[in-house]
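Suppose you are handed a protein chain with no further information: no name, no annotation, nothing but its sequence. What can you learn? This example shows the usual starting point.
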Amino acid sequence: MAKKNVTYRVFIIKNEELTHDATDLKDVLRTKLANSNVERRLIPVKEEDNSEKDLLGAFAPASNVEDAEYVYGVMMRLKPAKEFRALPDNFEQLVELPEADLLELQEIEGKTICSNLYHFMIRDKYLITDLPQIQTITGFQKYLSKLLVNRTYGFAPYIMSKNLKLKDVSTVTFKDSLRPIPQEEEEKMFSLKKIAKGAIKFISPEVKRLSEIMDSNMVSAHMVLNFERPKKMKPEVYAKKLGAILAPIQDLDCVYFTLNNGMKLLGSDLVFTHKEILEDDVITPMTYIRSMCTVLDTLE
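A reasonable first move is to predict its three-dimensional structure. Written in structure tokens, the prediction is:
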């Protein structure tokens, strides 16, 4: 009996502005998959660098199945190999690249490898995925936008407490992030530690060995954003606008929220997660599909 530990996160699929639920992504994506092979789904992680590419490698059900209630897929990060397990020479011409094939590949220098992967399912307005918690959903969102030719969807983390609304947030505090920052995000991230270093230089320009002081963790930095509804803005409009601002950062451990009642919560504390041990004779796509469907059933 094969076993595998998984941690799922659930997101609500939204329109680009994150103001309304979107339920058409499943059908839009299945239509795209029906007319594509691996080569057409290979998308560079960075526009100026063609070395790393993302790929929706395998999917279910088959594109000729009508009225499917979900679409399941495996996202893969591909990059040039040095001495790792390589992909087949003709992988770009395949209709799918099954995850099982990756486990049987030989180590050949100079080929293409899959450096990491995760699984996802889209059903109705929900996205469920075992994307590692140290990664945000932004990369998947960008991939879909390019695959679907700039048809953009947003993903708002599913909040555990139905009584907790984003309009109840009074402040958001950013602290030093301890998570590894994926290379594609690094250029767009700001560093509170750098801001603190600049402030110390401004206040005490004579301080020596400042880099050593910063590296010793003697200094920490926080940034607080305050939110308040303008008197002329309707509550429902404020809730939508605030939700659009906060939704992309809700699942980060480097952010915590202070509610109007004074309660403080980490971003990751707000978000629904589900840990499970998959058990099957062989872990297959159907193992994931059954498991993900069961989790989504508990939310509806």
